[in-house]
Amino acid sequence: MPISRRGFLGYAAGASAMALGGAGHSVCLFAQAPAILPGFRLIDFGRQTVLPESAAGYERALSRMGINYERVSELPGRPVQGMVLPAAPRMDAQHMACLKDSVEAGSTVLLESGVAFLGPGEFDSYKRSIKSAFGLSLDAPIRLWDTAGSFSQSPYVDYGWPLKIKVRDFSRIVPVGGSGLEEIAWFQETPVAVKRRMGRGTMVFLGSPLGPHLLADDRESARWLQRFCSFC
Questions:
Q1: Span 2-6, average pLDDT
Q2: CB count, 10 Å around CB of 144?
């Protein structure tokens, strides 16, 4: 079931960033290596998320798969087995630092980007934050439809990890690059998803949202998520 252009663009509004602590300081630094909490956390930032249906899609899929997860509204204070952050682009440097701490302590994090739906100023701020924390370089979003509302390019993303599969995308995608990372998905020849091993954990960045397709019961997206969860 396709997700309409209107459905994606209708959620490009939000609120101010959530305060996590004193400016310029991470509140998630672990003095010692803490035990990893079992299960998954689905981090739903609520109004800060530009695609609210994305969180609903992950919740639907995780429930159907029988995954032990908890839906929460903020980053946990301890590293957990797995974290999924659906379309949460309004993450400042403090959020990113906390997320990096969790990954280095042993968490597997799936960071799905909705940043393609932000304005230029917010997009630039997000680029700086994720570059500082994870060394990822984001390029300008690619829109997969033309001004007439029809698709100007084949709307498929080719995944090579954790399995080889084609997933439809009816929105916008964000090219991503950087050194010391593994490309895991491409739109044509442009990398739009990567994973990076950091410390004892792994961070996976998706520049192509899967959550809305999970909500629409897209089988390829569900297969991808299930295989990802098996690696956590």
A1: 37
A2: 21
Alpha-carbon separation of residue 167 from 37, 149, 172 (angstroms) = 31, 20, 13
Q: What is the pLDDT of residues 120-162, one digit of tens each?
A: 788 888 899 999 999 999 999 988 866 555 555 567 899 999 9
User: What tens digit of pLDDT does each residue of 77-111 get?
Assistant: 889 999 999 987 667 788 899 999 999 999 999 99
Among candidate residues 231, 230, 194, 224, the one with its CA nearest the CA of residue 61: 224
Distance CA(155)–CA(171), nearest Å, equals 8
Q: Count Cβ atoms below 10 Å from residue 149 Cβ, excluding itself.
A: 9
pTM exceeding the 0.90 threshold for the entire prediction: no
Q: Which residues contact 93 (CB under 8 A, 6 or more apart)?
A: 24, 128, 129, 132, 133
Radius of gyration, alpha carbons of the chain? 16
**Residue among 232, 218, 216, 228 at smallest CA distance from 51:** 216
Domains of the chain: 37-230 (3.40.50.880)
Peptide bond into 38 cis (omega under 30): no
**DSSP conformation letters of 125-163:** HHHHHHHHHH--EEPPPEESB-TTSSBSS--EEEE-SSS
Tally Cβ neighbours within 10 Å of residue 204.
Answer: 22
> What's the rounded Cα separation, in Å, for the pair 191 and 183?
6
Residue type for position 32: Q
| DSSP secondary structure of 59-120 | HHHHHHHT--EEEESS--SS-EEEEEETT-----HHHHHHHHHHHHHT-EEEEE--GGGS-H
